Amino acid sequence: MTEQKDRELYYWLCLVREFESRISALDKQGKLSGGVYSGKGQEAVTVGFCHALRKDDWIFPLHRDLGAFLVKGSDPKRLMAQIFGRRDGFSKGKDSYLHGGDMGNGIFGATSMLGATLPVAAGMAFKFKARGEDSVAVAFFGEGASSRGDVHEAMNFAGVHRLPVVFVCENNFYAYSTPNNLQFAADSLAERARGYGFKGEIVNGNDLHSVLDSARKAIARARKGEGPTLVECKTYRYHGHSEHDRAEYREQEEVITWESRDPVMLWEVYLGMKKHDVEAIRTETAEKVRRVVEEAVAFAEASPPPEGPEAMDDLYAMPIDTEVP
Ligand SMILES: Cc1ncc(C[n+]2csc(CCOP(=O)(O)OP(=O)(O)O)c2C)c(N)n1
């Protein structure tokens, strides 16, 4: 990889982390309404997959995938306005940040029902195939969501029709407080793919190299018409389920073990092994991402909340003036 690529990927990892850290702080300051579901610790998954995509590809993020918005191309200012519930957000302040999609950048909004976006991703991939387009759909979900029937239906349909979709499971070992051994009885989630007739693999979700490698291969397979892939990324969320959850169901030793495999730190080790000046890159990148996040917060705070009558905007499609043949 070129030095420029190495630095670019580091920038994305750091931007996602800074953005999420700031949101957690804003939440503690009481400036946000709605839940905050930090993906801190899981950055390599969203950065790795979204970096490997084109603009005309679509992603289907869930509640912990804020980083996916940033890397797929969302304007950080509009994303922050969405989180603040302001008029300049994607949903114009009428929605919690979780449900806002960014249609212009190929990002479908999440639904509250876990896993319900996976059949939509399969449907989008069906459309790509039917129209002969070579775009790809990437659906993110947690191992908790994997227990839902929707997930089975989406994967079965995608397998039958060999659709250009990649299913990315972020296995962070807990669905709220439910650990893996109470979530599924199989050795892994990736092995379910065999039952659907496509490839499944397990990836170290904290190692950006492994994620990128797997993402590129799965996306290329989908683009070439070789069907779906299920990638199970083993990773860990540092925070609780949301900011109010102290996650006391986890052992401190376990948390520390995962923190020692931090995705940003691992990328710094890689930069160092390539004899880049890590200290200088870290300082320069920290300044850059701090500025982006500062500007996003200032923009969001200056954006007005929607006024009463706006509550009715965008609720119904306008009638299309068509001539009946
Ligand atoms: C069908 C459904 N059941 C329960 C919930 C409540 N809920 C929201 S997030 C969550 C945990 C999800 O865990 P997982 O899918 O592993 O994702 P993670 O939060 O670990 O990223 C739960 C139980 C929900 N939103 N939808």
Task: Provide a descriptive summary of the structure in words.
The chain is of the alpha/beta class and 325 residues long. The protein has one domain: 3-Layer(aba) Sandwich (Rossmann fold). It has 11 helices and 7 strands. A hairpin with a 2-residue loop joins β4 and β5. α1 packs across α2, α2 runs parallel beside α3 and α2 packs parallel to α8. The longest helix has 26 residues. The protein is globular. The mean pLDDT is 96. Thiamine diphosphate binds next to β4.
Features:
5-stranded parallel beta sheet, 325 residues, Rossmann fold, 7 strands, globular, two-stranded antiparallel ribbon, alpha/beta, binds thiamine diphosphate
**Uncertain parts:** none
Shape: globular
**Topology, number of strands:** 7
- The portion of residues assigned to helices is 40-55%
- Main pleated-sheet profile: 5 strands, parallel
- The count of helical stretches stands at 11
Spatial separation of the terminal alpha carbons: 57 Å
Rounded mean pLDDT is: 96
CATH class: Alpha Beta
- The H-level CATH homologous superfamily, spelled out, is Thiamin diphosphate (ThDP)-binding fold, Pyr/PP domains
What is the number of domains?
Answer: 1
Structural class: alpha/beta
Listing every helix as H and every strand as E from the N terminus to the C terminus, the arrangement reads HHEHHHEHEEEHEHEHHH
Name every ligand kind in the structure.
Answer: thiamine diphosphate
Named CATH architecture: 3-Layer(aba) Sandwich
Strand order of the largest sheet: 1-2-3-7-6
